[in-house]
Design brief:
Blueprint lengths: L31 H16 L12 H6 L10 H6 L5 H14 L3 H27 L13 H14 L4 H4 L5 H21 L6 H18 L8 H12 L12 H20 L21 H20 L19 H19 L5 H13 L22 H16 L4 H25 L3 H11 L4 H13 L3 H14 L4 H13 L3 H14 L4 H13 L3 H14 L4 H13 L3 H14 L4 H13 L3 H14 L4 H13 L3 H14 L4 H13 L3 H14 L4 H19 L1
Helix pairs in contact: 1-5, 1-6, 4-5, 5-6, 5-8, 6-15, 6-16, 8-9, 8-10, 9-11, 10-11, 10-14, 12-13, 13-14, 14-15, 15-16, 17-18, 18-19, 18-20, 19-20, 20-21, 20-22, 21-22, 22-23, 23-24, 24-25, 25-26, 26-27, 26-28, 27-28, 28-29, 29-30, 30-31, 30-32, 31-32
């Protein structure tokens, strides 16, 4: 059959409507998208249903549990400065704390919502990619809705995502992905719209602000401008590449790029990010930019293996740093990755989707897998954003290979993978249940890594199993004699086993390894304080405060020692500093009140006791101390009221009975006084003072009757 040709001057019709061929088109209806999105949501809920009770882990403690900066949602400066380079993520944790304090359920709910949104974005972005002008002649475009749905199911179910979803603090990784993909999707949606459409410019604005939000969530967002440029080149440029400065898109891309250049130095000192990192986290090696870069070749290959075959997962990998390019592992990994990059270039013309997926994977890994050294060379959550490229390659590749004839086989294969991944994810979430299950699993896979062994010891400590804590920490010390946390945690175990001498020895060793560890000084100070070695304890608390001027407990404990030594002014000074750091600790107010009382400053003492009660209405000692102060002022009725309230809270408070008896005696109510002294003796038959006071009350009562 002769081909038709266009006459000179005749315009070629772009995207002519074709008559659907039976069996060639995928039949859809108005409910297809909603059903697909519902399936994604339902699958996510099912496979993460056992994650809502999983405890806090690892970095959750310094960033969330022990982070006072997120305790007040209205204190923007506090939660912003608690992680200045990631303020949006910290804001969400401040929100969680505001509504649910440290109830893990709420944190997991937000993490799952973000993960589901990301799966929806995977679906939408895939549809936009297959709707682009450069792909209009692709045969698999007709299956774009199927591919988009299957990609989203693969994304939402993959077990490698558990570290970004179930591990609470790694919400940072999932949130930056959310803003990142939203920015790309909005840009592509705007590009697909007609010129002059107002909505088009609103979408561009949304893309810009979403990019900024991503950059304020996590540092790996700084590759986003390059992915936008790549999207433009792959999907919207069908002719020779050129730059036209009259084109608004050029200025939009330049704007995003300039913003990223401005924000990077604001958050990171470029002179410091390349500094070598000495042995940390149980590792014995030093990480330089060059060694880190070499190591990332094999790390990226490991990521690819985990995406293909997600088995033997763990939080803390025992991954050795590469020291030479020509090491077998490093060289082979480099050659494999080079092959993938060359493949991506070769496939650009005929299979742009596959090519785009390859370059997306590498580009989105660039910040965390480059020459910028990071303490831990490998973490699973770093694959969360790059995994979009992997799933794009996998799903599109299977449809390309099997074609029209075996498209149902392609669907079955991808659904089987989704099913297996869903089961693995559900099982992996069981490992995240608590610290003991998580670190026991890790130790079984990395028995020669000091950090997981130590952290399992800490998990045993939380259960009060101190002997097991000592055993694990001792194993960690044997693996790495210079691993400071192992000494620190073994010292804590010795303290709880009433072996302060051994605790002091461990803290001292820990201090030798890390002279700037305020916690070691503090805990050694506690051990000295328990032994009554006041001067050594004061010296350690002072060193703690020198390292960390906001170490509230060090001020409080030093104040307690000054109180014991009757150095009331110094005690008040330390208690006041502790209150300045944490104004919600009732015991500090109560103890400062005692110090004021001993200096004869009754008004200040009563004010502090009242403040302690306001913070904790069930703090019986504050009522007792306020009762004593009222008694010293001769206000016996007020004293009796406070002693009575203390006894309502703590019925076995023998001192409260005894002092209420004394107050009754001062009012001449000797029968009530005798009754209180008797109750105090019922609690403690050896309470000598109660015997003496009851004897006096009996004599006074007899004298009254004689009259």
């Amino acid at each position: 059959m002769n081909k038709t040709s266009l006459k000179k001057g005749q315009k070629r019709i772009r995207n002519p409507k074709k008559i659907p061929q039976r069996g060639k088109q995928v039949k859809t209806n108005s409910y297809y998208d909603l059903v697909g999105l519902a399936a994604i949501l339902l699958l996510a809920i099912i496979i993460y249903s056992n994650s809502f009770s999983c405890s806090f882990h690892f970095d959750d403690f310094p960033r969330i549990v022990d982070n006072h900066g997120i305790r007040n949602l209205a204190d923007v400066k506090a939660w912003w400065n608690s992680y200045p380079s990631r303020p949006i993520g910290m804001f969400t944790f401040a929100l969680n704390y505001h509504f649910g304090h440290l109830n893990v359920w709420g944190y997991h709910l937000v993490n799952l919502i973000v993960h589901v949104i990301n799966a929806f974005l995977v679906w939408w972005l895939t549809l936009l990619i297959f709707s682009s002008p450069a792909l209009e002649e692709y045969k698999i475009v007709r299956y774009k809705k199927l591919i988009a749905l299957l990609m989203a199911l693969l994304f939402v179910s993959h077990p490698l995502a558990t570290q970004s979803v179930t591990y609470i603090i790694q919400r940072m990784a999932s949130m930056v992905t959310m803003f990142y993909m939203l920015s790309i999707a909005l840009y592509m949606k705007a590009r697909l719209m007609n010129k002059g459409n107002t909505l088009k410019y609103l979408l561009f604005a949304g893309s810009f602000f979403s990019a900024v939000a991503a950059m304020l969530t996590k540092e790996n967002a700084f590759t986003l401008p390059f992915v936008v440029i790549m999207s433009e080149l792959f999907f919207f440029r069908t002719k020779k590449i050129s730059i036209n400065f009259k084109d608004y898109r050029v200025w939009l891309l330049m704007g995003i790029f300039i913003v990223s250049i401005i924000i990077i130095p604001y958050f990171k000192s470029t002179s410091k990010i390349f500094n070598p990192i000495g042995p940390t986290n149980g590792h014995t090696y030093t990480v330089t930019p060059y060694y880190y870069f070499l190591t990332q070749f094999s790390v990226i290959v490991k990521y690819i293996q985990l995406l293909f075959l997600p088995v033997n997962q763990m939080l803390d990998y025992d991954f050795q740093v590469s020291n030479h390019f020509f090491e077998t592992r490093t060289l082979l990994s480099f050659l494999f990755l080079l092959f993938l990059i060359i493949l991506g270039i070769i496939l650009f013309k005929k299979h742009r989707v596959i090519s785009f997926g390859i370059f997306w994977f590498f580009l989105t890994l660039l910040v965390e897998s480059s020459i910028i050294p990071i303490e831990d060379v490998i973490f699973e959550h770093r694959t969360y954003l790059p995994s979009f490229g992997f799933f794009l390659i996998l799903s599109s590749g299977i449809f390309i290979l099997l074609g029209d004839k075996y498209r149902f086989l392609a669907i079955i294969i991808l659904l089987i993978i989704t099913g297996l991944n869903s089961w693995l994810t559900f099982e992996r979430n069981k490992i995240w249940k608590d610290d003991l299950s998580l670190w026991s699993d890790n130790v079984s896979k990395t028995p020669n890594l000091a950090r997981p062994v130590t952290n399992r010891g800490v998990a045993y400590a939380e259960l009060g199993q101190w002997d097991k804590t000592i055993s694990d920490c001792s194993k960690a010390i044997k693996i790495n004699p210079n691993y400071e946390p192992a000494y620190y945690n073994r010292g804590l175990a010795y303290v709880n086993l009433k072996q302060p001498d051994k605790a002091i020895a461990d803290y001292t060793k820990s201090i030798v390894i890390n002279p700037n560890s305020e916690k070691d000084y503090y805990n050694r100070g506690v051990a000295y304080q328990n032994l009554g070695q006041w001067n050594k304890a004061i010296d350690d608390y002072t060193k703690t405060i020198k390292i960390d001027t906001n170490y509230e407990k060090a001020y409080y404990n030093r104040g307690k020692i000054y109180e014991t030594l009757n150095l009331w002014d110094k005690a008040i000074s330390d208690y006041s500093k502790a209150i300045g750091i944490n104004s919600n600790f009732e015991r500090t107010y109560s103890d400062r009140g005692i110090a004021y009382a001993n200096l004869g400053q009754a008004e200040k003492a009563l004010s502090d006791f009242s403040m302690a009660i306001q913070i904790n209405p069930n703090f019986e000692k504050a009522y007792f101390n306020r009762g004593l102060e009222y008694a010293n002022l001769g206000q016996m009725e007020n004293a009796i009221t406070n002693f009575s309230r203390a006894l309502e809270i703590q019925p076995n408070f023998k001192e409260a009975y005894s002092d209420r008896g004394l107050a009754y005696a001062n009012l001449g109510q000797f029968d009530k006084a005798i009754d209180d002294y008797t109750k105090a003796l019922g609690i403690d038959p050896n309470f000598t003072l109660a015997y003496k006071n009851r004897e006096i009350a009996y004599k006074n009562l007899i004298n009254i009757k004689k009259k």
